[in-house]
Description:
This protein is mostly helical. The protein is built from 14 helices and no strands. 45% of the residues lie in helices and 0% in strands. Helix 3 (52-65) packs parallel to helix 14 and helix 5 (101-113) runs parallel beside helix 8 (156-169).
Amino acid sequence: MSLVSGPGRGGAAANGELPAELKLHIEKHVRYIQSLDTRKDELEYWLTEHLRLNGVYWGLTALHLLGHPEALPRDETIEFVLSCQHDNGGFGAAPGHDAHMLYTVSAIQILATVDAIGDLETRGKGGKEKVAAFIAGLQDRATGSFAGDKWGETDSRFLYGALNALSLLHLTSLVDVAKAVAHVQACANFDGGYGVSPGAESHAGQVFTCVGALAIAGRLDLVDKDRLGGWLSERQLENGGLNGRPEKLEDVCYSWWVLSSLAMIDRLHWIDGKKLASFILRCQDPELGGIADRPGDMVDVFHTVFGVAGLSLLQYPGLENVDPV
């Protein structure tokens, strides 16, 4: 799956004007995603190889939410995922790339989505226990945090990803979940949000990872829901879009990070859903498909999946329901 941007731009039709009626162009988004892996003659295709496996997950998820799970060939998808696996059980972004937590999580999510976790046993390197051991080996048992790879960078994204993947493999028992929860709590801030690490600025993306980790661990009782809900609802701007932190521009991807967090703490009604849905729809390319970060910018698969996922959380007609965790 290519991370190449464009060729279309969000919002305008060929005549440069917004369509009179805003609607979700499902079929065009499906064709856009299907076309991404045909653009191998473009430099950007190769410059984004370090995101290839993530891109497959984003495209596949968007297609499932759009009601077209068959739009990507299942056998080829599984074969590509398994080609990215290392002998240590972890997965790289593409064949030949180093194993990392983020790509390993995407690999497990993809296999779970296409009902192919069992292929780890028959065609993978060491079965699901080997993958889980790779993930568990990245936890710092003293702090509960997780590194992304053997080089040791820690981030709340890696902690959430570890619990997400291990829960899909039914092997969370291999890590110290209580210590992980304690680390998440250490990332909490006075404003109700969470940062990438203890003491770091609150950010909507990190809020999602921390709240999601607590949801998987069954410890949402630790969240100050009203305080966090207030901070998250303040992310909505006058044009309906959401930003990731104060004084930043709106971006379609926060339609997922913010909304999913609000959904997990039962505060989804604290933002104006109609204004947000309208903003997301204005970011579509109504002719070639795909969704951009904001109107006028080039579309890409990253913003396409998170725009569609945001609309799903808003119960937009014609979409499959998405799990906010």
